[in-house]
Amino acid sequence: MKIENAITVRNLYKSFKLPHEQKSGLKEVILNIFRRSNKNTRGYEIQHVLNDTSFDIKKGEFFGIVGRNGSGKSTLLKLLAGIYTPDRGSVEVNGSLTPFIELGVGFNPELTGRENVFLNGALLGFSKEEMTAMYDDIVTFAELDDFMDQKLKNYSSGMQVRLAFSIAIRAKSNILLLDEVLAVGDAAFQKKCFEYFAQLKKDKNTTIVFITHDMEAVKRFCDRAILIKKGKIILVGDPQEIADQYILENVTKDPNGHDENRKKQKVRVELQKKSYKQNENLVASVKYNYNLSKKHYVGITIHKNGYPVAELNSSRELPLSSSTKSPISLEVPLKNFNPSTYEITAAIFDSSSRTLLQYTPHRAEFIVRGYDEERGGPMRINAKWSVCDK
Length: 390
Prior knowledge:
By secondary structure, the protein is of the alpha/beta class. It is built from 9 helices and 18 strands. The strands form 4 sheets. It has a 6-stranded mixed beta sheet with strand order 5-6-7-3-8-9, with helices on both faces. Strands 11, 13, 14, 16, 17 and 18 form a 6-stranded mixed beta sheet that branches. Helix 3 (113-123) crosses helix 5. Residues 252-265 have low confidence and may be disordered.
């Protein structure tokens, strides 16, 4: 059976006019008009933000939108929400939609937190009785029990985001648009939000569109994702591939802006074999083609389910110079790894500043075999257990 789309985007274009002159008063406006008429020039330039963008989001999908700052992500989200109107193209939304783009837009700083809860609830279409029934849950989720009778202007930005998010998730909609605004909250609240996302992911009746710079969140939550660059989708599909390509786009940029040098930069891991017993050593070689004029070292990260579980580097045992061209070999004892499938990536670092010179999205996969397949976690740590004396 064909899965119905929650959102369909076709041939979307969006641009903005960026004024050249400052218009702080009537005199400046008149003078600017006169100058332009004399020079036959426009007082603005056109910024093309989105160019012929098309994609589908299935019902029940957790869909990621990834890209560097200025790539067009937030503009796209506002087009999906109906805040902006496209120059050309169409956005079709099949269902009720709630945008978590600018949380707390309807807040009044002169009202208390309690009063703002009911005000925002009314804006979302809830009755006073419905908001009264939800009030305790909203306050508990936001962790603001002791602050609800204070005026909102005395809240920190993080407290306001927590309250706004706690109200917004009560909205009766089956499509949620989530912007990076959630990053304003502290680590504990972000964890709570992600736990909420995990619950939503299990509910295939809810479609989530998620903008973020957190690639671990993309790999953890998203079913599919797109990577936007300069207003165009350059990659769509597997979240792991999207996340790796995003990292590659960010860490391999030539400081002088020369893409020709970047195309020659390569580093990869090659494994002696793909399957190991727990009493064996992982044997790998790191090959790279990078014109280095400084001392450097190789860094290795081992992942499980997209999360790093071990990191090691050659900075002490094998510092490298610009003349080093041969592959670097390493052995890793696997006796402390639990049976599972793992991935390994490599990077090159500057020895003096420890800055990242080159990263590869390529992940070499290997399997650790053993007898205790049910053992939890990626690693086994030798520890001593005992009963405490009373």
